[in-house]
Specification:
- By secondary structure, this protein is α/β, with parallel strands linked by helices.
- The chain is built from 16 helices and 10 strands.
- Helix 3 crosses helix 4, helix 8 packs across helix 16 and helix 11 packs across helix 14.
């Protein structure tokens, strides 16, 4: 792994493996879960390989006994029975640092196949942040939110080189997937990669969760979600634009959330505030992916104030999510909007009981 570029998640994964027998890393496909996890184990079993999957289906307990540890079980969702086998294994020998499981589908904890409660602890991974893309440090400096909570805004300093508005838009539309963030690809090549990602998402990944979904309708719905990225259109407007009803839209939302592609940021609630919009705000997990779904270019975003504001919002959220996932106690992103949009705060983070960060 000599070419491995450290991620902010490395320290957290190391901490979890030092305390628990098994860690499950989940997140959207191609966010670097397998690459990061492989840097912390001695052996990898990929369950998306037919031969390996067949061995685990036949006898998952024996397969686990044969494998060296710490072991990475990649794409666990291809053989869901492996979760129960991991449970049995750690029940017999509960030593920390034995297993890492990675997958791109949310484990349904109410499903009879889920056996990880108390044995397999979760960890989320997201696309790269700009700090990860632009830094080669092997150590993780304090995050933006950690510095803000500890010292306040007066202790935050701008970098030596600050991007202009064009630079921020280019970074947002490039996205944070490692295949794009770590490689200097042309705009055309990035577009081809992102469109291929969307095609796989619609025709393969979503179909694994529900084979009855119409790919053409799902593609249209995803495109409408992308066009309204970080926006708050009325649900009836959203459904009408996608030519679906509320029931169909709901049936599309859940698979996209289970694939970690759709993120819904809830409204912030406070007993002292009234007349707030309570609806959640929808984001695609990566602003570059959202732009590709609608065929948007930097020129398109720069020419439209509404698009520009929402892509800045989406870009900011994409930088905060990885930090929040590694913070304890874990804060959540919220938004605040007074009815009719007269007053609005794009993103709110509660840091403990007495600290609130508002980003607009």
């Amino acid at each position: 792994m000599s070419l491995y570029r450290p991620r902010r998640a490395d320290g957290y994964l190391r901490e979890l493996l030092g305390a628990f027998p098994a860690v499950m890393i989940t997140g959207a496909r191609a966010t670097g879960k397998t690459t990061t996890a492989a840097n912390h184990v001695v052996h990898v079993d990929r369950l998306d390989q037919p031969g390996t999957a067949a061995l685990y289906r036949a006898d998952p307990d024996s397969a686990l006994r044969r494998a060296p540890r710490p072991l990475l079980i990649d794409e666990w969702q291809e053989v869901p029975e492996v979760l129960a086998a991991v449970k049995r294994s750690v029940d017999e020998r509960p030593a920390p640092g034995q297993f890492v499981l990675t997958g791109s589908v949310r484990a349904e904890r109410n499903n009879e196949t889920w056996a990880g409660t108390g044995r397999i602890v979760p960890m989320s991974m997201y696309p790269l942040t700009e700090r990860e893309i632009n830094s080669s440090l092997a150590v993780s400096p304090p995050s933006f939110l950690q510095r803000l909570a500890a010292s306040g805004i007066d202790e935050l300093h701008l970098p030596a080189v600050v991007p202009d508005i064009d630079g921020y838009v280019r970074a947002a539309l490039r996205g944070g997937f490692p295949d794009l963030g770590y490689h200097d690809r042309s705009e055309r090549a990035r577009g081809v990669w992102l469109m291929s990602y969307l095609d796989d998402l619609i025709t393969r990944d979503a179909a694994t969760l529900d084979s009855q979904k119409d790919p053409s309708k799902l593609r249209r719905y995803l495109r409408v979600l992308a066009l309204n990225n970080a926006g708050m259109p009325a649900e009836t407007t959203l459904y009408r634009s996608a030519d679906v009803n509320a029931k169909t839209a709901s049936s599309y939302d859940q698979p996209l959330r289970n694939l970690f592609v759709l993120v819904v940021v809830p409204a912030w609630a406070n007993g002292y505030l009234n007349r707030l919009t309570k609806a959640g705000k929808r984001y695609l997990v990566d602003p570059g992916l959202a732009a590709a779904a609608d065929g948007l270019t930097a020129a398109d975003v720069l020419a439209d104030n509404d698009l520009l504001g929402r892509w800045f919002d989406s870009f900011t959220a994409s930088q905060l999510r990885p930090e929040l996932a590694l913070t304890y106690p874990r804060p959540e992103l919220h938004h605040l909007r007074a009815e009719a949009g007269r007053r609005e705060i794009d993103l709110i983070v509660e840091l403990g009981a007495s600290q609130v960060v508002a980003l607009k």
